[in-house]
Design goal:
Keywords: Membrane, Transmembrane, Transmembrane helix. With 401 residues, the chain is mostly helical. Helix content is 76%, strand content 0%.
Length: 401
């Protein structure tokens, strides 16, 4: 009966999000779903096993810290949407720092494409009860060749249409999973069998650096910054804030419900969520695997497109988008064979942390230059502090082992 309700809830949420004419016409929903999907896409799959392995019972608390940092960075980017975008094409130190940040973002996209597809390969192999770094790299490479080839041949517009369905499927899976976890915890409490497993929950310097390396699990809100051709500034500001609130609530509830399922010695297996939720309902591992494969493919297509567009823009259209995709393909293939999925998570976190460092520095410069800005000095100090915190993530973030 529980499996039936899980599938029913997941299916209903998926069908509504994917085919609702009301949502299709809602500009606010469209502006919200892009950052929300980016934040929830891959982080939701890996955050529980990675935090369980590194910080144990403190997972919810540490997740809260990551979410607060992300919300602070989101504040800097929202400030840039309102105050920097109108002067973005002028000349000055803020414009120079922002231009460098775009170069960094292109590199971060290269890494995130590799991250998404390595995660996809891991879940695909796990679905068949198999684990092999060699085969994971082969599968990742084949998908990269497919996406890069399509991009160079016909462009990625056709593949990008898959994104809305993958996002809806992922959010449907999350709804079904949260429902199942809530019932599971209620049942354990009602029978008096709810208890926490024995875990090593001490946090040392190494664990702290691993935590810094997990910033990628709450990354994605910055996509609102580059949707100016689709949505007005104030709508992007409000919907980015809403996406961060919704994702923060989901992450905290999810980890709170998952804590009872934490296991000792998980070894930072990024696909461990499938085995963790197996006691809850038989269908959950299958549902998660299907959603993971779909969401990671769509995310990789979106970031490949974003990286190609950034490369083309950075070089001022001196090379065609076809060669930009070729560059993305070459770099991501190199990263695939030189890293593993846990390492690439930390690399992606550090790359985006550097981008956030520069975006926050841009906000600090703009705040300093805007003489009429209310509480100008406080904003300069705040954005400078956020920039420094992101720089620490870039310098000291480590992969899980």
């Amino acid at each position: 009966m529980l499996n039936f309700f899980i599938v029913a809830i997941a299916t209903c949420v998926f069908l509504y999000l994917a085919f609702s004419t009301r949502l299709a016409r809602s500009e606010g929903w469209k502006a919200t779903v892009t950052p929300l999907a980016s934040i929830m896409g891959s982080g939701f799959l890996v955050v529980a096993p990675l935090l369980a392995d590194s910080v144990g019972y403190f997972a919810v608390l540490c997740m809260g810290v990551l979410l607060l940092l992300a919300y602070a960075v989101g504040g800097a980017i929202r400030f840039n949407i309102r105050h920097f975008e109108p002067i973005e094409h002028q000349r000055g130190p803020a414009q120079t720092v922002s231009f460098v940040s775009r170069i960094v973002l292109a590199g971060a996209y290269f890494i995130s494409v590799t991250y998404y597809l390595q995660l996809l390969s891991a879940f695909l192999l796990n679905a068949f009860g198999y684990s092999s770094e060699l085969w994971s790299n082969i599968i990742t490479s084949l998908i990269l060749l497919f996406i890069g080839g399509v991009g160079m041949w016909r462009g990625l517009s056709q593949l990008e249409k898959i994104e809305s369905y993958a996002v809806s499927l992922n959010l449907g899976m999350i709804a079904g999973l949260l429902f199942a976890l809530a019932l599971y915890n209620i049942r354990l409490v009602s029978t008096g069998s709810w208890h926490l497993p024995t875990l090593d929950s001490t946090i040392d310097l190494h664990d702290l650096r691993v935590l810094l390396g997990l910033l990628i699990v709450v990354q994605g809100f910055e996509t609102s910054r580059y949707l100016q051709s689709e949505h007005p500034a104030e709508l992007r500001i409000s919907t980015m804030r809403l996406a961060q609130w919704i994702s923060a609530g989901i992450y905290i509830v999810f980890l709170s419900l998952m804590t009872v399922l934490f296991q000792h010695g998980m070894g930072a297996d990024v696909t461990a969520i499938t085995s963790m939720v197996a006691p809850v309902a038989i269908l959950l591992p299958i549902l998660i695997s299907v959603a993971a494969i779909g969401s990671q493919f769509s995310a990789s297509v979106a970031d490949t497109s974003g990286a190609g567009g950034l490369v083309e823009d950075i070089v001022q259209q001196k090379i065609s988008i076809r060669y930009a995709y070729l560059l993305v393909l070459a770099v991501t293939l190199f990263l695939t064979w030189m890293t593993d999925v846990n390492a690439i998570i930390a690399y992606a976190s550090r790359a985006f942390a550097l981008f956030y460092t520069l975006q926050s520095a841009t906000a600090a410069i703009v705040a300093y230059q805007t003489k009429t800005l209310e509480k100008r000095t406080q904003k300069v100090r705040l954005f400078s502090l956020i920039s420094l915190l992101c720089l620490l993530v870039f310098l000291f973030g480590l992969p899980s082992e």
